[in-house]
User: Which sequence fits this backbone?
């Protein structure tokens, strides 16, 4: 009840950071029936479902009934409130969503870099000016490539 992000939102955010902007642009245009460049909450839920059904990240985490973690329609989360206002009546412009996606990707990248930078001789440097070791970079590549160490 006091949670900020639902499981569905979490999986969707993972999908947002791993899906090209072009795929979201196409999905928005497909479901923007009147062509005004905006989606209401119901239209966006359809876009979210399509993205979760058609991306590797969405498919990987979708409807795991054995764990109890199933994707559900969420209309009362912080993410929903951010996009559609507290009353859920605002419309979401594609530009706002793409900006959100770009900022989220940048923040996650900085967090990952800071994590790799920890416990190294470069720890005290600002991430944007800092460095990581070759081993830390190789570990990051292995992690994102899906290979084991």
Assistant:
């Amino acid at each position: 009840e006091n949670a900020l992000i639902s499981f569905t939102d979490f999986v969707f955010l993972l999908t947002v950071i791993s899906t090209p902007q072009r795929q979201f642009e196409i999905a928005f245009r497909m479901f923007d029936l009147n062509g005004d460049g905006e989606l209401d909450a119901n239209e966006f839920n359809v876009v979210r479902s399509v993205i979760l059904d058609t991306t590797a990240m969405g498919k990987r985490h979708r409807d795991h009934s054995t764990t109890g973690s199933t994707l559900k329609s969420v209309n009362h989360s912080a993410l929903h409130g951010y996009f559609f206002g507290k009353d859920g009546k605002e419309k979401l412009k594609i530009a706002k969503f793409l900006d959100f996606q770009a900022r989220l990707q940048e923040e996650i990248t900085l967090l990952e870099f800071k994590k790799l930078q920890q416990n190294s001789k470069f720890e005290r440097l600002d991430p944007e000016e800092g460095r990581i070791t070759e081993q830390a970079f190789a570990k990051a590549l292995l992690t994102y490539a899906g290979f084991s160490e």
Remarks:
- DSSP finds seven helices and two strands in the chain.
- The mean pLDDT is 78.
- The longest strand covers residues 38-39.
- The helical segments are 7-18, 21-31, 41-54, 56-61, 78-84, 94-117, 134-145.
